């Protein structure tokens, strides 16, 4: 993983495996930590984590479809 740009948004380049690992890690955190303590332990609401996980998963699945087209 490498940092590409920092402005209002941070742009990071990562491998497909790193992308999958982050999405999976968010899922594990959602399963392991109860909603009532999620914010305190992880610094985000469970809904925010679910949304971010969905975005990572969507990008990952787009990449997989691109691999199938080749």
What is the structural class? alpha+beta
End-to-end Cα distance, whole Å, is: 24 Å
* Helix and strand sequence: EEHHH
Number of strands: 2
- Gyration radius, in Å: 14 Å
Report the portion of residues in β strands. 5-15%
Outline type:
globular
The amount of helix comes to over 70%
The profile of the biggest β sheet is: 2 strands, antiparallel
Q: If you average the pLDDT, what whole number results?
A: 91
Instruction: Quickly count the helices.
Output: 3
Strand order of the largest sheet: 1-2
Q: Low-confidence stretches at least 5 residues in length (pLDDT < 50)? A: none
Structural overview:
With 70 residues, the protein is an alpha+beta fold. The chain is built from 3 helices and 2 strands, in the order ββααα. The protein has helices at residues 16-32, 35-42, 46-69, and strands at residues 2-6, 10-13. The protein has a two-stranded antiparallel sheet. A hairpin with a 3-residue loop joins strand 1 (2-6) and strand 2. Helix 1 packs antiparallel against helix 3. The longest helix is centred in the C-terminal third of the chain and has 24 residues, at 46-69. The chain is globular, with a radius of gyration of 14 Å. 3% of the residues are buried.
Helix and strand topology:
Elements: E1 2-6, E2 10-13, H1 16-32, H2 35-42, H3 46-69
Antiparallel strand pairs: 1-2
Helix pairs in contact: 1-3
């Amino acid at each position: 993983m490498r940092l590409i740009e920092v402005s209002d948004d941070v742009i990071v380049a990562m491998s497909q495996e790193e992308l999958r690992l982050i999405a999976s890690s968010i899922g594990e955190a959602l399963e392991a930590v109860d909603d009532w303590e999620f914010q305190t332990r992880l610094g985000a609401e469970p809904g925010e984590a679910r949304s971010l996980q969905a975005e990572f998963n969507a990008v990952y699945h787009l990449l997989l479809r691109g691999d199938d087209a080749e």
